[in-house]
TrEMBL record:
Name of the protein: C1GLC protein
Organism encoding this protein: Pedionomus torquatus (Plains-wanderer)
GO MF annotation list: glycoprotein-N-acetylgalactosamine 3-beta-galactosyltransferase activity
Compartments reported by the entry: Membrane
Domain of life: Eukaryota
Gene: C1galt1c1
Family, per entry: Belongs to the glycosyltransferase 31 family. Beta3-Gal-T subfamily.
Keyword Nuclease: no
PANTHER family referenced in this protein's UniProt entry, alphabetically: BETA1,3-GALACTOSYLTRANSFERASE, C1GALT1-SPECIFIC CHAPERONE 1
Amino acid sequence: MIFEGGSFMKGVVLGGAFCMLVTLLGHIRLGHGTKAHHHEHHHIQAPNKEDVLNLSEGERVELSRSIRVYCIILVKPKDLGHWAAVRETWSKHCDKVEFYSSENVKVFDSVALNTNDMWTMMRKAYKITYERYKDEFNWFFLAYPTTFAIIENLKYFLLKKDSSQPFYIGHTVKSGDLEYVHGAGGIVLSIESLRRLSRILDDSDKCPEQ
């Protein structure tokens, strides 16, 4: 996943609004890394390339079926140019992709969320996703129209990850004691993380809409 655009402060605001996601999801599997001045990198080891190359055709097919990625793209009308590019390029490699827009847009099919606030859009998109697809997909990738991702590489990275565990993966940054994944680079949640998040989003005391 490649980080494109967006300032650090924008990420801080979005991450803070994300209801202290790292803490609320419990023991998130982020791996280990070294600290930098403004952010902290975490390195989760991908499977050995030789192991993948030695898989039989049947094993490769089964692998593709077992790692199912649903892509959530948050868009606004001003993003139409990027929106079109995402639709025609990398998003085609998701097992399923849907665009969640701030309002109804006639040019492209999308799920209208009827809000211009990015946190509220993210909140609604995650709730809809869990309600509709909790039994169909085991990994969920949220991105912006300015994000670029290679889904095959993501699946390779997730090869030895257990989606029944609460994984929260992406480009991590820090703001004080809060560590979170910056949305502009894409956020990957396992089904278990999405389940826990959905439960928290339903609790207005723990996670108010504003």
